[in-house]
Design goal:
Elements (H helix, E strand, L loop, with lengths): L6 H4 L7 E12 L3 H7 L4 E9 L2 E2 L4 E5 L6 H8 L7 E6 L2 E2 L8 H7 E4 L3 H4 L6 H11 L4 H14 L16 H13 L5 E5 L7 H18 L2 E5 L3 H7 L2 E6 L2 E7 H6 L4 H8 L6 H5 L44 H10 L10 H11 L7 H14 L7 H8 L4
Parallel strand pairs: 4-9, 4-10, 7-8, 8-9
Antiparallel strand pairs: 1-2, 1-3, 1-5, 5-6, 10-11
The structure holds adenosine-5'-diphosphate, iron/sulfur cluster (SF4) and magnesium ion (MG).
Length: 399
Amino acid sequence: MPRATSHQEALVSNNPLVATENLKKHFTIEESLLARYLAGAKDRVVRAVDGVSIEILPGETLGLVGESGCGKSTLGRAIVGLYEPTEGDVRFQGKPLWGQGSIPKTALRRQAQIIFQNPYSSLNPRHTVRQIIGVALAARGVHPQDREAETIGLLRRVGLGADHIDRYPHQFSGGQRQRIGVARALATNPKFIVADEPLSSLDVSVQAQIINLLQELQEEYGLTYLFITHDLRVAYHMSHRIAVMYLGQVVESADTDALYENPLHPYTQALLSAIPSVDASRRANRILLEGTVPTPIDPPTGCRFHPRCKYRMPICEQEAPDLVSVQTPIQTEVAHRSAGRMGDESVNGSATEAVNEVVNGRMSNGTNDIVKNVVRRTDRTNMHGRNTEHLVRCHLHIV
Ligand SMILES: Nc1ncnc2c1ncn2[C@@H]1O[C@H](COP(=O)(O)OP(=O)(O)O)[C@@H](O)[C@H]1O
Ligand code: SF4
Ligand SMILES: [Mg+2]
């Protein structure tokens, strides 16, 4: 599978195209009157997305990974305005999606599209390709006379032919149907596309073709993607950056190479170690991710990953490390060091050594001193916070 273009080449600007601010989307499951009356049952709140702040830069692909049920689809739908947030907001080109001064929904629908996991259910079976794409072209204001030519152009661009225009979805293979989904998304001439597991219903050989197509279209039209997948190999090939989601929250985000070379959060580490690998050292270090994702109705206290984390400490049951600090200098530092590159010259010498020791796995002597040193360094660089020590221990796996 091909890799995405380099991040620097892809970026159009450093102002986020899309950003979420402490975004929450909760669903309420209402109990029946009988259950309320007989058993005193109360409505339950599903905290599908529970405080997510992310930014997506124009021209880049942000991969969103995590096990099933972590809230990826809910986040993707909220980002394109299909769900109204319970709290927080989404900004598209700096404008809020909801409330005062919000971007009109018709404009948003043209600019931000979504490709769904299952092209069987997302394409109306009673509509021909002409009708399916025609609706999107009409939304862009394309004159009825011009729609046929535009539709044929789009079909050709996604690898289909003019003779496909009057066929129904059931007359296509899975891969072709997903190409129609892509053509429909392109028809409004969007800037941003959420692709929600667009490959998971396809054969592996077809998956690579759709990946190629999405990458070519990104280069050609300067598209920005939020690429949702539970497949970490696909995420690696598609994404410039990755955000890892666990139980409604983003636990780690970093450039793709840094994340794969140096997963810092224990959940990321466990997810990555589950990828079948030809690399024997990786296989030997495999960490089993035990159990399943707990229910977001009643998430664990403190760090939500603690019931499954092999590094958990008593404090983990009370508090999660400060998420603000996820992209800390430590992360950059550790990533740089293990990649054999030079770190920041302003780095305090002893702390650098300490990080080196941890990275090189020499943690037996003076582990506490190492932690203190790293904590001192992060404090010095103003990464502040009551949770710094917890974060350092968690991310450097020092229990
Ligand atoms: N409309 C809904 N009503 C109630 N619960 C929902 C709804 N949509 C999703 N959920 C729940 O929210 C959680 C996150 O779901 P989802 O966003 O689909 O996760 P993912 O895409 O990562 O598999 C799951 O526990 C799911 O059951
Ligand atoms: S070490 Fe603690 S805070 Fe870090 S992931 Fe494990 S349980 Fe969570
Ligand atoms: Mg999903």
